[in-house]
Amino acid sequence: MTQTTASSLIVVPCLNEAAHIGALLGQLRPAAARLGARIVVADGGSTDGTQGIVEKIAAEDQRVVLLANPKRVQSAAINLAVATFGDAADYLIRIDAHGGYPADYCDRLIEEALATGADSVVVSMLTSGTGAVQKAAAAAQNSKLGTGGSKHRHMSAGEWVDHGHHALMRIAAFRAVGGYDESFSHNEDAELDYRLRRAGYPIWMSGGTHMVYYPRSTLKSLYFQYLGYGRGRAKNVLKHRMVPKVRQMIPLLVAPVVLLAFFSFVSWLAAVPFLLWAAVCLGYGLVTAIRQRNPGIALAGVSAMVMHFGWSVGFWQQLLTPRSQRKVA
After folding, report:
1. How far apart are CA 88 and CA 39, in angstroms?
2. Which of 2, 67, 280, 311 is disulfide-compatible with 226, CB 3.0–4.6 A?
């Protein structure tokens, strides 16, 4: 494995991750030792024992630090970690507590940053699940139906991109554009990528590594997650006067289509768009389950519908709320 003199700061924003944080730090500590990196767990006020687990590990390993994040959101967590410890590092590596990573993940990110000269290295994010709902959500999120063909939802051979799942950034570039916008609780990565590109800092999609994301395990939590994503995307559009991409504009129709269906008592035609959307999603789930011979993902279409609806409601909610009443995305 290639050793580099580039220093790095590994930041893990978290909140109530007692079930995952110990194993994650156990995975990251060898990489930190190889790279001479510090691991900062920026905790948003966990009440499930997460802090105690991190404190115990930090007592055994001086590379691990627990940092209180009073603002709670991930954007603030990373900004705070960089402000506190960033002077001693060249690169910021962002790790999500709900993810799975190859053993050489951090090494590969730095290698690609040095090889390409990229100021940001993003990665493909593949989704995996265990329970019935989580497996169905994973199948939906790994599909074009669920994500509209977003590049970072599929494996890449390595390419320059506009946006991807945040993994590594040159701290000088991160600071030059002002870091994350802390008014964003969702979509802060896409918003920062927009500013990086506008300032001339190139973004490279890794062809050498990726991460695995574990989705929400209930349809309710999946809905609220995508509600936040939709609000974040609308906030991004409003801030930068951006025009949504086609793959983002299509799901915008979902909330109006559902609303229109309530008027089917006036005319049955009002329900046709809703029925077509439902048929496409549910049919996709069944066909996928048959093709993969995996009945466990037959509900992928239901998960896709929840994702589409939550995203659409969140977007319209943020877009139509008067400026004076808008909350953090």
Report:
1. 13
2. 311
Residue in 151, 197, 153, 155 with CA at minimum distance from that of residue 176 = 197
How does pLDDT run across 171-204, given as a tens digit for each residue? 999 999 999 999 888 889 999 999 999 999 999 9
Write down the pLDDT at residue 63.
94
Does 227 lie in the same domain as 120?
A: no
| Residue 3 counted as domain residue | no
242, 299: one domain: yes
Query: 203, 13, 198: which is closest to 109 by C-alpha?
Result: 203
Q: Which DSSP category does 202 fall into?
A: -
State the pTM of this model: 0.83
- On average, the pLDDT of the chain sits at 89
Q: Are residues 166 and 246 in the same domain?
A: no
Cβ neighbors of 300 (< 8 A, separation 6 or more) are 136, 137, 139, 140, 143, 145, 146, 284, 285, 288, 289
Q: Which amino acid, one-letter code, is at 200?
A: G
Structure tokens at 216: 């929400």
For the chain, the first-to-last Cα distance in angstroms comes to: 41
Question: Which residue among 217, 240, 270 closes a domain?
Answer: 217
Which amino acid is located at 259 in the chain? Answer: L
- Domain end position, chosen among 217, 245, 268: 217
* Cα 161 to Cα 180: distance, rounded to the nearest angstrom: 19
45 plus 116 within the same structural domain? yes
